[in-house]
Design brief:
globular; 487 residues; alpha/beta
Amino acid sequence: ACWQGFRKAGLALEGVERVVLAGGGPAGRPEGPPAEPAEGDGRVVRAEAWLPRAGSLPTGPSTAGRTGPEDLATIVYTSGTTGPPKGVMLSHHNLLWNAWAALQAVPAYREDLFLSFLPLSHTLERTAGLYLPMTAGATVAYARSVAQLAEDLRQLRPTVLIAVPRIFERVRRRLEEGLGERSLRRRLLDWAVATGWARFEHAQGRAPWGPRLLAAPLLDALAGRPFRARFGGRLRVAICGGAPLRLPEARLFIGLGIPLLQGYGLTEASPVVSVNRLEDNDPRTVGRPLEGVRVRLGEQDELLVRSPGVTRGYWKRPEATAALLDPEGWLHTGDQAALEGGRIRITGRIKEIIVLANGEKVPPADLEAAITEDPAFDQALVLGEGRPYLAALVVPEPGAWREACAALGLDPEDPAAARDPRAERWALERIGPRLAPFPGYARVRRAAVLLEPWTVDNGLLTPTLKPKRARILERHAGRVAELYEGH
């Protein structure tokens, strides 16, 4: 069935140079194709005919002996959140140095068990989740799927977990939704988190000891220990990267006894640039640079990086490489940052800054984070480049959408309900209070409710669950035009 489906569409693609048929049916023959797999199509061969016979294999020195540290090890294509993907060239030295430097910041041991579930095409997982534990002699277990992650955590009982912020956000939301807003269990959770966070701040030297900490052992037994059991009960550190970690998630995990370390990196740096340490952890920042990494701020407070992990450039993209690396070897990250006491705090992304028609500049990520703090919204994207006002595309949480439709007299299963003016008013009424702390020009005046979630499968999220802004705006160009009709 797989072959027949590919035969109809795949062979029509000009980019397909070779199709190798492997596997077989009960008699050991490949299922599906006839004796001549594609009626004379020379691109289609069977594995046994394509692979060399043992006697014809070369017996000379292996390529490993001719490979040096600065030779190209891999080309990793960026996810393309703001443009077409570019192939980042990384050497063996880039990758191994970065794994070693990260290991000095967050030690791993032979007894550790890493649970991997992010795609290995992402350099955070490849370097921190594969090369680093290999360097330490630790064990790596691979989750069956994100859908089965909760069960795998309980069964495998990892000691180290590497994840993106979206995973921690989902855990917090589901936990809070399951407890309800005013239940006794919710009040106990909030008390335990607040006390655990106060204990953490005291241990980090940022807050004095207080009598409230006397209740910490009891609250940990009642709330912390059951929470940690969801992750197998052995998790000694969780590392977060790929996107900004919000403080509510940091407070929950740290307050309930799971050390959560936020780091920062990008594919072009192999990827880790900085990370918090267990003994020096400020979740409001992405920590201090790794040993051997130099950072400084350039124009528009852009974070610039130099290190042995920095790429040699983009594959066959000399102009893009020249924009990435200046003559002195500084990598231009495109991220805006502040340097605070040796720590890095990411404040925005230069390319994603929205410039309104009146010249006011707005960082959309801050507004989107505030909007999705409302449990009624799973996803949000703020837009308004060159426009007179800001608008938002929001994907509601399914349960909240059903409740809203019941109150508004709409059918939640009818796609037309999302375009009803009552749905937009509902969204704006919820968005308004979330954006109240921002300047007046940073308020959202129009909103479109979208019922299709943004996922990796439909091409609207990167593998680390960051929205592909350009792709989302292209997909919903019609709704965007409606938001600015007459302007």
